[in-house]
Specification:
By secondary structure, this protein is an alpha/beta fold. It folds into 2 domains: about 230 residues, Alpha/Beta hydrolase fold, catalytic domain (Rossmann fold); about 170 residues, no CATH class. The protein contains 17 helices and 12 strands. A 10-stranded mixed sheet has the order 1-2-3-5-4-6-7-10-11-12, sandwiched between helices. A two-stranded antiparallel sheet has the order 8-9. Strand 1 and strand 2 form a beta hairpin. The longest helix is centred in the middle third of the chain and has 23 residues. It is globular. The relative contact order is 0.14. Belongs to the peptidase S33 family. Keywords: Hydrolase, Signal. It comes from Demequina sediminis. This is Carboxylesterase B. Pfam families: Abhydrolase_4.
């Protein structure tokens, strides 16, 4: 079993385009030392911020080069205090063919772009690597950039991993109060940065990276949430958009319930595709009948929620942990073997150690020590809740309505998507929210990519985002899993590299 779990981590690491190691994380402490004073003055336009005048100083960090930039804590005060923004670089392999810099983002929100760079340069096309300096970055509040902090592992677990019962208004109110208390602890530990890790602020940081690297235009490839970041950049800086690829597109302008329903349907569909695959594999523990097999998986998830399982060391596996452990295997079909192994353990041994380990991978948490290896989990919430402008308060009626919609979308996972109050109770909203994509119409052509059986960002989102971005074209990968470039086929690599390197946009609607 230990060998099997070790292999799990190896396969999933490749699946998610994450590097094998992560940079050292430090907790942000005293507010006064969390920021560095920049020149003060009267209010100025963001593009006139002193941070645009800084020079980047590179140093070696393994096979790459690393540097740290400064960006304003609060972009409404562009000449005010600053925080660190960590970047790294893999130089173009053919200086004679070099076109400039290509900024990459792995998604999340809260994912580390520094981690992405090492694996990206292994999976990307040779023509792309010859033409671009690949630039990774940890967005504001994340990882090796000045990070937000929200407490120790026990406090994080209590907030994120507790299974909630939300049947009465009193229970809902208690959950909302818990969200507010969690946010206030983040503010106490992180200072004003936690109020300013929204997507628009991160997009403004990207323009600083573009400028200090000496590029007139931003060339960009973003995965998953990184597509939202790219689209917001195009809205804020349409004239600065160069060649931009949005892979695993998020339609972030959809109402929250519709987004949740889309993902619930996506993971239900991935589960059924897994079941079809498993039925043809030797040792599949599931019933040969697909509907009965789906019921088995559903019962395991609900038993974890209502009664719980144990891992081999006795650590509890509740509903949240079980679902995290299941869905993490659905991001790439190469990981289905580990979903099969986890189900086999539960069905035949009555323990859930594999799902416990898999959940730890999803959460970037060491299952052996219980410590979190990065701040991606609470960065995800802090960024997402700042962006969630205009969400309605949660009530018994609204939650019942959501449950009905999500149960219909996913009989297996719908309850889980409806088992929290979301961002209700988060005290702050983004100061510059993007609620429409209109200015982006003036941007240079963008390439939007969707995968037909993507569970996390359904292909319909790529189609709708492409419709909203008037200058975009749509590329479809017929396949399983989350995102396409670097994990799909040569057709996708040729299409993306042909656009990024040669400027040849594939015909909209091309399928690979």
């Amino acid at each position: 079993m230990n060998r099997r779990l070790a292999a799990t981590i190896a396969v999933l690491t490749a699946s998610f385009l994450l590097a094998a190691c992560t940079p050292e994380r430090t907790q942000l402490i005293p507010e006064e030392s969390a920021v560095t004073a920049a020149p003060t003055g009267e209010a100025i336009a963001p593009e006139d911020s002193p941070v645009y005048q800084q020079e980047v100083e590179w140093s070696r960090c393994g096979e790459l080069e690393c540097a740290t930039l400064q960006v304003p804590v609060d972009w409404t005060d562009p000449a005010g205090p600053t925080v660190d923004l960590a970047i790294n670089r893999h130089g173009a392999t053919d200086p004679d063919a070099r076109l400039g810099s290509l900024l990459i983002n792995p998604g999340g929100p809260g994912g580390s772009g520094l981690d992405l760079t090492e694996s990206f340069v292994v999976s990307a096309g040779e023509d792309l690597l010859a033409a671009y300096d690949v630039i990774g970055f940890d967005p504001r509040g994340v990882g090796a950039s000045t990070p937000i902090a929200c407490g120790d592992a026990e406090q994080i677990d209590e907030f994120f991993l507790t299974d909630l019962t939300l049947d009465t208004q009193e229970q809902i109110d208690a959950a909302v109060a818990s969200t507010t208390a969690f946010a206030e602890r983040c503010r106490e530990l992180s200072g004003p940065l936690v109020e300013n890790v929204d997507t628009s602020s991160a997009a403004r940081d990207m323009d600083v990276i573009r400028a200090v690297l000496g590029d007139d235009q931003l060339h960009y490839l973003g995965y998953s949430y990184g597509t939202q970041l790219g689209a917001v950049y195009a809205e804020l800086f349409p004239a600065n958009v160069g060649r931009m690829v949005l892979d695993g597109a998020v339609d972030f302008l959809l109402p929250a319930v519709e987004q949740a329903a889309g993902q619930a349907r996506g993971f239900e569909g991935a589960l059924m595709n897994f079941i079809d695959w498993c039925r043809g594999e030797e040792g599949c523990p599931l019933d040969p009948n697909p509907e009965r097999a789906a019921a088995q998986v559903r019962d395991i998830a609900l038993t974890a929620r209502d009664e719980g399982y144990e891992s081999l060391d006795g650590s509890p596996v509740n509903g949240n942990v079980m679902v995290y452990g299941m869905v993490v295997t659905m991001y790439d079909q190469n990981s289905w073997v580990y979903l099969q192994a986890g189900l086999d353990e539960v069905i035949n041994e009555g323990t859930a150690d594999i799902f416990f380990q898999l959940a730890g991978f999803y959460l970037d948490k060491d299952p052996a020590t219980g410590e979190y290896l990065s701040n991606s989990q609470w960065a995800f919430t802090s960024i997402g809740c700042l962006d969630a402008v205009g969400d309605e308060p949660t009530t018994v009626a609204s939650l019942d309505q959501m449950r009905a919609a999500l149960d219909e979308a996913s009989p297996t996972f719908g309850w889980w998507f409806a088992s929290s109050v979301g961002c209700d109770g988060w005290p702050w909203e983004a100061k510059e929210p993007v609620t429409a994509l209109e200015a982006a119409d003036a941007a240079a052509p963008l390439l939007v990519i969707g995968t037909t059986n993507d569970p996390a960002t359904p292909v319909e989102w790529a189609e709708s985002l492409s419709e909203q971005l008037a200058s975009s074209e749509l590329l479809i990968f017929d396949g399983e899993g989350h995102t396409a470039y670097g994990r799909s086929n040569q057709c996708v690599i040729d299409a993306v590299d042909g656009y990024l390197v040669d400027g040849q946009m594939p015909v909209s609607g091309t399928r690979c």
